[in-house]
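Tutorial, part two.
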Amino acid sequence: MEAVLSSLQENYVRPDEANAAQSKVATKGKHRFIDKVHVRYVEKEKRHWASLENFNSQRIAINEKFYRDNDRLLEGGIWAEVTLAHNDIEDDDYAFYIEDLRPIQLSRFDFDRYTEGRAAFTRDEWIAAILRSVGLEPSKLSPRVKMHFIARLAALVEPNYNYIELGPRGTGKSYFFSEFSPYATLISGGQATKSTLFYNNARRKVGLVGYWDTVAFDEVGGIKVKDPDTIQIMKDFMANGRFSRGAEVIADASLSFVGNFDESVQQVRTRLSMICFCRCQRNSTTPSRTDSLPTFRAGRCPRIAASS
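Running the prediction step on this input gives:
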């Protein structure tokens, strides 16, 4: 653990340290960093350029072998240990180049190897392995709670899977979507626009649903959508996995909505059970209104699944 902490302290660069990091590479000639690396193809220049998020440089030369062997560099970027070197040739139009790159997250998915490894586990062993991979100890959880956390993972692996979770504060809902997958993003602050989420007509660029496997909304009860068109586009996308906004766009992103309530789980269950009971009683005495009211039929009240 000490070696890991020492490596992070020496090689991880915070955004406010970008200038110092660039100076270190120029002074030493090269240095190794831990950062998220993106590669983009610039059509006008007919070449690829790499960029590091915290190092704050958008024109870093990169050898073809790196993005050929690591597909995700071109598809949203990957976290990696990167050895950056300084370019001393004054005629070149870049100051840094990648000398070596070692991914520290999965950069290419081998499904055959995955299925071979899965066959070595029983069902319960596999569930335990999955839960431990997101920081949960399965031996401390009941079977029902295990399935609850497994359900939270569905949005990360199923395309166009729409998911909502309400629960008490401090149960890891927001933390899960912001920290446990590099392919998920969490929208905080309650602001959501159609340009950000779906398509920016001015820039002709697809929004978040085109770049992330999962787009999660924090504090869903406080989301403010000023443009009603955003709601309609979201409904179309959630229903069909596509939308039209000047351009027909098809995307696989799942949408997850997480929110908090301040009462205990038992209080919420009791209140909802009373609502179910009252509506069931209303339906039994006023059958003529059952088609026009959003009601629960007797014996069909939904089971409440909440974070515990």
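The chain is about 35% helix and 25% strand. In part three we will examine how such features are distributed along the chain.
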